Amino acid sequence: MDFRIKKIQLEQIDSTQNYLKQIILDDKFNQENKNNLKNIKVVIAYEQLKGRGSNNRHWISLKGGLYLSFNIPFFKLKLQKKYFNLISIIVGTIVIFSFLRFFKNFYINFYDILKKNLRIIFPNDLVLLDDNKIYKLGGILIENFKDNLIIGIGINIFNEIESYFIQNKDSFDHFPISLKEFILKKNLNDINTFFKFDTKLINNLSTFIFNFVIFYLLNLDDELFEKVMNYLYAFDYTPYLRNIKIKYIKIADANFNEEVQETVERIIPDYKYLIFKIVKKNIDQINQIDLINFSQIRRIFY
Fold first, then answer.
1. Which CATH fold would you assign to the domain 5-238?
2. pLDDT tens-digit readout, 61-84
3. What CA–CA distance (Å, rounded) separates 89 from 30?
């Protein structure tokens, strides 16, 4: 291993993503120790004051959540260029895999609930399903910065995000929830003792997650990619969403591209072929399915 992982733990920060970018900038200007440029830095915080989601949207980051950002220099990535448009969903799948594996040894009923209800929605949402409702548990933020891939992960663990949402309904696209709040709805015996804010658990879970993500991204050959995709198919909730509002680039001809925004019946990812199957009206009318490349998608609304 020709690099080291430097971990930085903070009680509170404006944004782990911004903090990490500043560290990378400082390393770029400080050429005295060139080995710093090869290192992977991980920033973990228990609260963010100016957390960010995709499209620069505000991410509410109340105390008690898992908020982390880490970088991987591009030259270390084994990920093929054709898969770069899938980086968010790849990372999200690995996060779900590691998340479940972490809790499998903790409490078997707890693990069973997560396995049954934890899902991922393209491109970057981690959600919990219950009674035909979708609750947002967390998200993935991917950015390119100074020859580095920066990965941000936010997951609601102990924070009281549901009650915050009720008081601030206009701040959210859809209903968020924390792991604590979701599990408490299940009324499991003896589970309440778990849900005291525990920095040690957040640190251990953060370490578990970023170690998995780093390992996969540094070793993601075709065989390992196939394993990730097979796991994704088991936890991908995207094809089950209805009436999805999307933006994409429609290629009219060689010289003209048009941005289109419309609501479709379904959007079905075919990750192996890097396309979406867009069902505009009736799911049973196969002749109304359009194919759109992943690279043409600009934004998806749920």
1. BirA Bifunctional Protein; domain 2 (3.30.930)
2. 567 789 999 999 888 887 887 788
3. 34
**DSSP-derived 3-state class of residue 228:** helix
Question: Please, what sign has the CA dihedral across residues 198, 203, 204, 208?
Answer: positive
Q: Which residue has the tokens 């980086």?
A: 87
Distance set, CA 161 to CA 59, 62, 104, 234 (Å): 11, 7, 24, 27
**What is the residue-wise DSSP string for 188-223?**
-TT-GGG-S--HHHHHHHHHHHHHHHHHHHHS--HH
DSSP assignments along 48-95, one per residue: BSS-B-GGG-B--B-TTSEEEEEEEEGGG----GGGGGGHHHHHHHHH
Secondary structure class of 243 (helix, strand, coil) = coil
Domain definitions of the chain by residue range: 5-238, 241-301
Tens digit of each residue's pLDDT (9 = 90 or more) over 191-239: 655 666 678 888 899 999 999 999 999 998 888 999 999 999 999 999 9
Count the neighbouring beta carbons within 10 Å of the beta carbon of residue 79. 20
Contact, 139 vs 201, CB < 8 A?
A: no
Give the whole-angstrom CA distance, residue 54 versus residue 156: 16
**Which pLDDT score is estimated for 201?**
86
The residues, any chain, with a CB within 8 Å of residue 249's CB and separated by 6 or more, are 257, 258, 259, 260, 296, 297, 298
Query: Any residues with CB less than 8 A from the CB of 39 and at least 6 apart, and which?
Result: 3, 4, 5, 6
Torsion 127-52-197-92 (CA) sign? positive
Q: Are the C-beta atoms of residues 281 and 294 closer than 8 Å to each other?
A: no
Residue 138 to residue 99: CA distance in whole angstroms: 12
The Cα 270–Cα 229 span in angstroms is: 10
> pLDDT digit string (tens) for 42-52?
999 887 666 56
